[in-house]
Amino acid sequence: MIDVFQNKYPGRDYEITHINPEYTSVCPMTGLPDFGTIEVHYVPDKLCIELKSLKYYFLEYRNRGIFFETAVNQILDDLVAACKPRRMQVTGRFHTRGGIHSVVTAEYIAPKRTSRKAKR
Amino acid sequence: MIDVFQNKYPGRDYEITHINPEYTSVCPMTGLPDFGTIEVHYVPDKLCIELKSLKYYFLEYRNRGIFFETAVNQILDDLVAACKPRRMQVTGRFHTRGGIHSVVTAEYIAPKRTSRKAKR
Amino acid sequence: MIDVFQNKYPGRDYEITHINPEYTSVCPMTGLPDFGTIEVHYVPDKLCIELKSLKYYFLEYRNRGIFFETAVNQILDDLVAACKPRRMQVTGRFHTRGGIHSVVTAEYIAPKRTSRKAKR
Amino acid sequence: MIDVFQNKYPGRDYEITHINPEYTSVCPMTGLPDFGTIEVHYVPDKLCIELKSLKYYFLEYRNRGIFFETAVNQILDDLVAACKPRRMQVTGRFHTRGGIHSVVTAEYIAPKRTSRKAKR
Amino acid sequence: MIDVFQNKYPGRDYEITHINPEYTSVCPMTGLPDFGTIEVHYVPDKLCIELKSLKYYFLEYRNRGIFFETAVNQILDDLVAACKPRRMQVTGRFHTRGGIHSVVTAEYIAPKRTSRKAKR
Amino acid sequence: MIDVFQNKYPGRDYEITHINPEYTSVCPMTGLPDFGTIEVHYVPDKLCIELKSLKYYFLEYRNRGIFFETAVNQILDDLVAACKPRRMQVTGRFHTRGGIHSVVTAEYIAPKRTSRKAKR
Amino acid sequence: MIDVFQNKYPGRDYEITHINPEYTSVCPMTGLPDFGTIEVHYVPDKLCIELKSLKYYFLEYRNRGIFFETAVNQILDDLVAACKPRRMQVTGRFHTRGGIHSVVTAEYIAPKRTSRKAKR
Amino acid sequence: MIDVFQNKYPGRDYEITHINPEYTSVCPMTGLPDFGTIEVHYVPDKLCIELKSLKYYFLEYRNRGIFFETAVNQILDDLVAACKPRRMQVTGRFHTRGGIHSVVTAEYIAPKRTSRKAKR
Amino acid sequence: MIDVFQNKYPGRDYEITHINPEYTSVCPMTGLPDFGTIEVHYVPDKLCIELKSLKYYFLEYRNRGIFFETAVNQILDDLVAACKPRRMQVTGRFHTRGGIHSVVTAEYIAPKRTSRKAKR
Amino acid sequence: MIDVFQNKYPGRDYEITHINPEYTSVCPMTGLPDFGTIEVHYVPDKLCIELKSLKYYFLEYRNRGIFFETAVNQILDDLVAACKPRRMQVTGRFHTRGGIHSVVTAEYIAPKRTSRKAKR
To answer: What is the pLDDT of residues A78-93, one digit of tens each?
Structure first.
């Protein structure tokens, strides 16, 4: 579902960020839509996430009933499975509901670091 | 009073933030209302705070006479008792009174950390 | 001069901030008024600073001739003497004089830490 | 292609930043232009980057088909080759494409540090 | 050239900042004026920089042909020589030239620290 | 579909604004979602728009394929039909598509003004 | 309920604005609190509104169930009755409810203008 | 070159805005790129500008040598010829060159107004 | 008290603005200091206000007990008397007191306009 | 001194703005430098101001002793003489001196309007 491409600079730890301010899903309690911004930060290993497929991946949440906490952890699990990064952090900043604004952040760090710094 | 639900990702340390810009209570000295924004940041263990009950919890301060320092520490104690988190920080940013703007921040860290990072 | 009250949560290290954007004193060189914002951040031990007396304390600078560097250090010394905190930082951000904007920050840390974290 | 000049203060580690908000290249997939801001931060060793030649260097990307990830790493490699710095970081902040805003950051640290702090 | 006065609180490490948004000099290549903001942050030892003489010191750059990198390092050297601080950092943020915005930061740390914290 | 209630102050021309930053629909060309903020400004005559039904009205656009220009004019027509205001303006501010940000504004003014100013 | 004092400059049309960001009332539908900022702009005739009594007047809304549209018009009526101004405008900017942010503005203009410009 | 589509609401004067922050052309004096934001505001008559073709129209300026004043007037002439609007305004806000930031605004108003307000 | 100098361009109506963010006086009710920003806008006739004497004029309010409404009108009267302008507006924007922020604006227009536009 | 070029669109009234945030001159009282931003807005008749010569024109103020009011009027007179516009406005926004921030705005309108709207 999420396309990847070969990282051309695997010898260097570097960070890629994708920010999607157009995330929307459905509240499983009320059936009303939720809105938010999803930030993905990661250090690629051998694979990078292809941007267009990432966009289509987020579209699948549009009609899905899901809690804020679950959505952020699920996105992290799916993206880690797709590109097997050295490190990844996913943050969801959600619109005010009932007067309260919520943020959820989850992080993954690969069990065996394989990173090597270029030219060190 | 504060409802909780099962954390579906207890194997991962992740942070949840709830920000309530509509906090109001009553000054115990003057009887006049105080206003502020309460920020709750926490790392859940087995339980997460249910958002709607959190909203109702804050409403109970509306007619209560309480000092800034007490309110922040009391909220921290109540929320820790309700969800037994791995870590929690509560910050209150209060409106100017007598020309002075006040902020109070208190933190709790669970005595025995039980957190395990996913896939490490 | 500065009133204090008993800290109800001495078992927990927590931070209190008071920001006064209405500080004014007199330049000892020119006799002209100076303006600035004074920020007080502290971790209380057994005593907290009473807000109204803090406001009156700052009023005493209104007609006093004092340099920026002296004012910040003097405020720190006076507030430390009054409430004997575990840690305190005072920052003064002063209006532009002669096209130059100045900031002075001084910090105090109690010689023997007596802090204990709640429930650890 | 990138001119350099002698660093007059090689005995001191200091940081130079150049920010170019007028970066543009061409998307290799669609042939449409991409836009972004490139930030270069570095600690010079014996050579500094000449500003005018840096400007002309960025102009060469104007009609080049290149991915975000490749552009940032290529700029880092070219600038490191030109001035052999003690440390360099390149960040590209790219305009929204498909509703998603991307940032890429890569860093180089010289294998053998030769820096000496002045007067220490 | 730069006047100093006795630091009344030598027993305490504290930071003084002076920010001058009205720095201007002349580009040695083109003869055209450059503009920028110079920030000076320092921890005084026995001497503080007198503000009015600092203002006059900056005026001497108005008709001087000097590069960004040289100006920041020269200001650092001159101010260190004048007040012999425990630590000093000088940052120059210069206006866009050729579409590129530049920042230069240099730091000095005294070889033998003589600082003592008050009351520790 | 849009509920209304009696205007309690028909003797006075006054303005009501409702701003919905959570508008989303579907592009009829690409099938991809569009996002935007809809602003409704109106002077009520005998009827006011009920806020909750307005929210549900906007939800019906979530899965509808519609152009920006049509959406704004359609919302204006529907709301005018529902509450028969003295004047109404609808503005849609849409997210960037293809690098271009679009705004559409349409206005209705009742053919026969029936407004009377209170107490004049 | 609202105290007034003699306008010392009745010969001149001038504008007074009071902005209260601490307005709160109760939603008559849900019983939940509403929050907002009330702005009062007026040109006094013979009487000015006393600031402290205005503050106490707003406090009476704290536990009152009232709609946004009614509150703004009621405040306008009450303040006009109290100080009989030449002109008055009241605006309420209310916090987001159900994802929608509302603003209500009502204006009063005295039937017989009695204003005279000074020295004309 | 610029595609148009039928205006579905010709009976109503309404305004459409398209803002392109990714305009770039070449300076005819120096051959160096210029950058800017082009804003198009218009009231359609029988035709609306198709957004995708507008995007491709702007791309033709990428390698064209043209002055700021000419570009804005040329864009206005081309868009007026394409969609024959009731009114159109084009503004170009260009990046700083030689320390000076320039803005050019030109407007067209159709010689014979044919607009009719809906339902008046 | 307020010095003036000859307007060198009396044949042209032009506007001069002086903004003083360092206004302070004393509340006649409580004896506590008030703070605010005073803006003076005027079209000079034969005389302009000398800036240094304006600064000293504002200093006289520092220890004076005066209401917001009176201060703005008094400043207008004093400055009009001093420079006999064609038009003058004085606005005071005062710090929050009791949770309410106040603004007062008064305007003077000379009874017989003597202005002539240059070269018309 | 100020170069001009032929206006290619004399049949249309359109506005050109040039903003120079790097204006500096010398205070004739103190000999100290003044700083500010000069904004020039004009509707050209047959001639436009050449941007590079405008930049050099402003450089001549760098070492000139001149008051704020005189500078703005002098710039207006010089630019009107150079390009004989249909209308021109010059605004100077000057840095704070003695705690007071000043703005001066002067406008010129050609005695005989020769403007013709395109295609009217």
So the answer is: 999 999 999 999 999 9
The per-residue b/e assignment along H69-88, b for 16 or more CB within 10 angstroms, e otherwise, is bebbbbbbbebbebbebbbb
Residues in chain F, pLDDT under 70: 112-120
* Contact between chains at A99 and G95 (C-beta distance less than 8 A): yes
Query: Residue D118: is its pLDDT beyond 90?
Result: no
Return residues 52-71 of J near E (CB < 8 Å). 59, 62
Give me the phi and psi of B18, to 5 degrees please.
-125, 125
| C-alpha closest to that of G18 among G102, G70, G111, G83 | G83
Once rounded to an integer, what is the mean pLDDT over residues G45-52?
A: 96
D73 touches chain A (CB under 8 A): yes
> What does the alpha-carbon distance between residue B41 and residue B64 come to, in Å, rounded to a whole number?
24
Ranges of each domain in chain I? 13-109
According to DSSP, residue H119 is labeled T
Q: Active site includes G78? A: no
Number of C-alpha atoms within 13 angstroms, CB side, residue G63? Answer: 5
3-state SS assignment for residue D118: coil
Q: Are A105 and B14 in contact (CB under 8 A)?
A: yes
Please report, rounded to a whole number, the percentage of residues in chain E having pLDDT higher than 70: 92
Q: Residue D45: how many CB atoms within 10 A of its CB?
A: 18
The 3-state DSSP class for residue A119 equals coil
Of B13, B48, B51, the CB nearest to A100: B51
pLDDT tens series, chain I, 120 aa: 899 999 999 999 999 999 999 999 999 989 999 999 999 999 999 999 999 999 999 999 999 999 999 999 999 999 999 999 999 999 999 999 989 999 999 999 998 655 444 433
Catalytic residues of B: 27, 34
Measured distance CA(F57)–CA(F72) in Å, rounded: 13
Nearest CB partner across the interface for B70, out of C8, C52, C119: C8
Is chain J touching chain A, with at least 3 CB–CB pairs below 8 Å?
A: no
D111 CB neighbours in chain A (<8 A) are 119-120
* Beta bridge mates, G107: G89
pLDDT band at B118 (very low <50, low <70, confident <90, very high): very low
CA distance I12 to chain C (A): 32
Tally D–F CB contacts below 8 A. 7
To the nearest whole number, what is the mean pLDDT of chain D? 93
Residue A101 in contact with partner chain G when CB distance is under 8 A: no
pTM more than 0.90: yes
User: What is the CATH number assigned to the segment(s) J13-109?
Assistant: 3.30.1130.10
Which pLDDT score, from 0 to 100, does residue I98 have? 87
* F31 contacts chain D (CB < 8 A): no
- 8-state DSSP, J30: T
Q: Which residue is closest to C30 within chain E, CA to CA? A: E52
Residues shown for chain D: 120
Two tokens, residue D12? 């001191």
Per 3-state DSSP, what percentage of chain I is helix, strand, and coil (rounded to 5)? 20, 45, 35
pLDDT value for G119: 38
CA-based nearest distance G88→chain A, Å = 31
Look up residue G24 and give its two tokens.
């709160």
pLDDT value of position D117 = 47
Instruction: Tell whether the model's pLDDT for residue A12 goes beyond 90.
Output: yes
Instruction: Give DSSP secondary structure letters for A8-30.
Output: S-TTS-EEEEEEEEEEEEE-TTT
**Hey, of B5, B17, B42, B61, which one would you mutate to test binding to chain A, going by the most A CBs within 10 A of its CB?**
B17
* Confidence (pLDDT) at J98: 87
CA angle G36, G42, G44 (to 5 degrees): 145
Strands (E), J10-114: 14-26, 33-43, 47-49, 87-97, 100-109
**Closest residue in G to I30 (Cα–Cα):** G52
